[in-house]
Every structure is written in C-alpha cells, then in structure tokens.
Design brief:
Rossmann fold; nine-stranded mixed β-sheet; six-stranded parallel β-sheet; 40% helix; binds alpha-D-glucopyranose
C-alpha cells in the first residue's frame, strides 16, 4: 500500500536562502534527498518534506504570503506572518514576526535575544501545519535553535490535544545549547516539566529538545559515541547515556553534483579519477594567482573554513612554524576568530615566500584550492561531521585529520592520514608521514584515487533517515495503542 510520510524540517539556516555554517548545507540537501528517494521497496513509502526557516532580514528570496496567525504571549497576541518560497519543488516556509524582525543577524552576540527569537520561531512554526491543513507526521528539528519545538510537541502530546506527531532532533554541535528559557516559557504559558536533566540544563532549549525527542540523530557514528563520554559530552553525557537507545549516528552526505571535479566551472582544469594528473594545472594556476613560487613538486598544504579553536587552526599554525626546514607551501582561506586571523597573518609575514592567507569567504577560490593543493589539514579538536574533508577527498586533496567524530568515519588510512590526539606533536608526526610518502607518486595516486572514488552521496544518508522515520512512527503508534 503506498503511503506518504509528511515531515516538517525546522532550521535556523538553509542554503541558498541563508548560510552561516555547515548546518545550512544539511538542511538544504537532506530534505530534497528524502523527497527524491525512490519509493521504499517494501512499503512503497514516499516523503513529503518541507522546510521552515525564520525570515531573517538577509533573506532576499521571492515568496508569496500564505498564512497569518498569532501566538498568545503574556496577555497579548504576537503576530505570525508566513510566506512560501520554493527550493526546487520543495515548499519553504519563511516565518516572520516581531522577535525575528527586531534581531538583525542569524546569530548575534547576544544569547538572550537569540533565545527569544528562536523560541518564537519554534513555537510559531509548530502551529503552521494546522493553518495549511497539512497533516504532518514528523517534526524534525536541528540544533538548539529549533529544539524547543520538540518540547512544545511533547506538551501537546501529553495534553492529548491533537493527533500525536513524532519529534526528531538532529544534533550538529552539542556545545551550543541556547540560553535560559524560564521566563520565555512562562510568558507563552508553557510549564517547565521536571526532567532528569542536570540542574544547569533544565531550562535550556537543546537539553529540553533532547529530553523530548523520539529519536536523536548525531551527524556521524563516532560523534554519537563520543558525546556519551565526559570529554565530549559537555556535562550531558550521563543524561545522554540513559537515552542511548534513542541515539543514531548518521553521516551527512555531500552534494556530489555540485562538488564534481569533472564538471566544476570554478576549476581551471577539470579532471576525473582517470585524469588526476591534470590537477597539476590547477596547482600551477593557483600558485600564479596567489603569487607563490610556481613549484609543481613542492607539497602544497591547504586549510579552508572557519578560523576557530574547534578547528585546531592554532595547532596547524604552530606545527608549520616548526617545520620550516622542509619544503612546503601553505594556503589558508577563511574568516573567524580575530586572534587566529592575526596569528595567520603573522605566519604569512614571516614566510611570505611560502604562506598565503586569504581572510575571506570565497566559495570559488575554495573549490580551486581543493582541486589544486596536495594535502588538506583538519586538526579539529572535535568534529561532529565535517564537510571540508569530504570535498577535499572528492577533489583529490589528501586529508590529514584528527581521528575524531565524522573525520574518523570518512577518512580511512587508504584515503588519508589520521592522528590520535589534537596536539602539535601528533599533527607534526602525521605531516611528516605525509611528506615522506608524497614523493612516491604511485602510492600518493592510490590515496587520491581512493578518496575520489568514495561514496559520500546524500542518497545513502537519506535511506538511513527514511528507515528511522518509519521506525519512529511505528513505535509512536504502538505507544498510542498501549495508552
Ligand atoms: C556543525 C558541525 C560540523 C557538521 C555540520 C553539519 O557545523 O561543527 O561538524 O559537519 O554542523 O552537520
């Protein structure tokens, strides 16, 4: 019997509407991958997935008004205006209201304001299906920003107001939990339930979402295990351990159509696994573009992304400074922490003949670097999934990574180099191993070929989510019958 499962994605950002980090790639690609899954072999299931986003002022997409309602709050009504845009064929709902309009940035430096804004968004989005007459089966929230929706869903279920809806939470970054909700909940007339959360976490959005979710997805199997330990659990490890049967590690995918070295218009020379040698032209073009010596045989090391302590940028800079008796070139592209930007600039000033630091966001240059450099550094202290290492491998740039989270699950010894502790010493040892292997063309090609041939497609992840949705709905029905 054919069946459609209706899923509402709730997220703070989604590419191309608005993008700050890796979250935007997932919330844009995953719902579309689910929608295009071929009907399930056994049950003939298809997915009607739609996405709701806050109508941030930076969003310029065309949209048509489709719903207008209000949320009661502290004795008055807060207006909610919703307009509909499209991503391919998927409806995308942009939610507008005073708490969203009054806060400019997607994420500001004021946690209280952000918490207020995302609480409003979560509660407003949860009401939307009713106004659209869209009979939703699952609400799928992402990170702390939208986690409160799952708590509100649980309260509705306890009141047995409507047909029960399942709640799923995908965790992209555990340390970010949101701000105190005590007063906000009271103002929306919502109770704060007694939970088994530690006292400090009892009124924070992410912990309440984790408490309420019917299933928790973590963006890689290794990070799913790591968050159960004191080192990565951010104080929630015991609470999460009690819920480990609800936790699933599902690796993110990569948009393999967009990131295709055989067709990427941003590359001076396009190539396939059979024509990897053409990469050399990209390297020479990049050296020329950045004013580095045109040296095809010197290993070129790249780093691309947010300049952040999480990403281990400080470790990379420290190691390179210690390895100046060896020949290498280093290209860094990204923006972030001001102290790290200064440290990167200082390295370039010290070694102008071999270091280029480009402190900006430039997706075209990023693609060129992935297709030109020989080694890709990612010494992240923790990495829930990580996207850059997957792009690097698909573009023939051999990754050197700390064996943590999604880096452990995507980079194997056949495709790159892994080291066990995020320290200068361990990174140095891994780099020396890579330098030693680099002149061996055959073995280096083998690493590149293995990376280029790996399957990082979204289809694989979407199938896992599809199974999970069906299991969650099944157990919700069983619960209902028992009650
Ligand atoms: C966060 C994580 C990153 C992950 C991304 C998408 O940005 O830090 O590891 O790839 O979310 O899930």
């Amino acid at each position: 019997m054919s069946k459609t499962i209706r899923v509402l994605f709730l997220a703070a950002e989604a590419d191309p509407f608005i993008k700050v980090g890796g979250l935007a790639d997932v919330t844009s690609a995953l719902p579309r991958a689910l929608r295009s899954l071929p009907p399930d072999r056994v049950d003939d299931v298809t997915f009607d997935v739609r996405l709701a986003l806050p109508h941030h002022s930076a969003i310029k997409a065309e949209a048509r008004p489709i719903a207008f309602y209000s949320l009661p709050r502290a004795g008055r009504e807060v207006e909610v205006r919703v307009s509909e845009s499209l991503l391919g064929e998927m409806p995308v709902y942009l939610i507008h209201g005073e708490p969203i309009a009054s806060s400019g940035a997607v994420y500001s430096s004021n946690l209280a304001i952000d918490t207020e804004k995302y609480a409003f968004f979560s509660l407003a989005a949860l009401e939307l299906p009713r106004y659209l007459n869209w009979d939703v089966d699952i609400v799928h929230a992402h990170d702390w920003h939208t986690a409160l929706a799952l708590y509100a869903l649980l309260l509705k279920r306890q009141n047995r107001q409507e047909k029960p809806i399942a709640g799923l939470l995908t965790l992209h970054n555990l340390p970010f939990m949101g701000g105190d909700l005590t007063e906000i909940l009271a103002s929306y007339n919502l109770p704060l339930l007694e939970t088994d959360l530690p006292a400090w976490a009892k009124a924070l959005p992410l912990p309440l979402g984790l408490f309420s979710a019917d299933a928790i997805v973590v963006v890689s199997p290794t990070y799913a295990r790591e968050i159960l330990t004191p080192e990565f659990g951010c104080g929630l490890q015991d609470f999460l351990h009690r819920r480990r049967h609800l936790i699933h590690g599902i690796l993110n995918g990569l948009d393999t159509l967009s990131f295709d070295p055989a067709a990427d218009p941003a590359l001076p020379a396009r190539f396939t696994v059979e024509t990897i040698d053409l990469r050399q032209q990209n390297k020479l073009a990049l050296q020329h573009k950045l004013g580095l010596p045109a040296e095809p045989l010197i290993p070129m090391i790249a780093m691309i992304g947010r300049l952040d302590r999480q990403k281990g940028v400080d470790l990379a800079l420290a190691v390179l400074r210690k390895l100046t008796d060896l020949p290498w070139q280093f290209v860094l592209l990204g923006i972030g922490d001001l102290a790290l930007e200064d440290a990167a600039r200082a390295l370039q000033a010290e070694f102008p003949g071999r270091v280029r630091v480009e402190l900006r966001f430039d997706s075209q240059l990023a693609r060129h670097i992935y297709a030109a450099a020989d080694m890709f550094l990612m010494p992240s202290r923790y990495e829930p999934c990580g996207l850059a290492q997957m792009i690097a491998m698909r573009y023939g740039c051999v990754p050197i990574v700390h064996a943590t989270g999604g880096l452990s699950d995507t980079v194997t010894e056949e495709r790159g180099f892994l080291f066990k502790t995020p320290s200068v010493r361990a990174l140095r040892a891994a780099l020396l191993k890579a330098f030693a292997l680099y002149p061996n063309r055959e073995r280096w090609r083998a690493l590149q070929r293995a990376g280029l041939s790996a399957d990082f497609s979204w289809l694989r992840s979407a199938k896992r989510y599809s199974d999970l949705y069906q299991n969650v709905l099944h157990s919700l029905r069983v619960q209902e019958i028992r009650q």
